[in-house]
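Batch job 17 of 40 flagged for manual review because the log was empty.
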Amino acid sequence: MIFENIEIRWLGHDGFEILTENKVIYIDPFKIQEQDNKADYLFITHEHFDHCSPEDIKKVIKPETIIIAPAECQSTLLRLKIKNLFIVEPEKKYKVNDLEFMTIPAYNINKFRAPGIFYHPKDDDKVGYIINVGGKNILHCGDTDATKEIKTLKNIDIAMVPVSGKYVMTPEEAAEAVNSFKPKVAIPMHYNEIVGSVSDAEKFKNLARVPVEIIKKGG
């Protein structure tokens, strides 16, 4: 997908590649092929195996790659002998070199692995990201429900939103979220791998009152 001067490729599940004239950015690569474009920046949302995947991280990094991740990922990433690791917390603004971004909390409000135990507890400090690329704000929600923090966001150009339910927002909840904060375009994610299908993406598109792009894997 091309949005003005930004190219966005969906790598499957929650994984994306963002290409600009002078930056290559990856987010949560999982079950991907070796990539020709190596990351200048790699963002990881949380420690679960389908987001912080050592095998896939190796396919996108170079010695100079800066990896940005919450503290819960640190032990996994240090085993890879990562040189440039930048640890983040929720609800903070950051600048790394010339890249500005902020974090939002990513957590469940109604998805439980057992009674009273969330799949993604807020206290774990898992995150989503709002990355400023070429003057545009790109939101990657991470694994989350339709939280108050997401619903009250402003000035989002591109929003990558989970839609599969069970662990994250359902299509209905995801549509409610984007209808609240009104990004210029929304991209469904977190389907066709582990849980969810393209029908979830299509249902989300039908319910959303903002433009939605369903990107083919690799496109």
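Reviewer: the log was empty due to a logging misconfiguration, but the result itself is present. Residues 10 and 215 are 6 Å apart (CA to CA). Unflagging and moving on to job 18.
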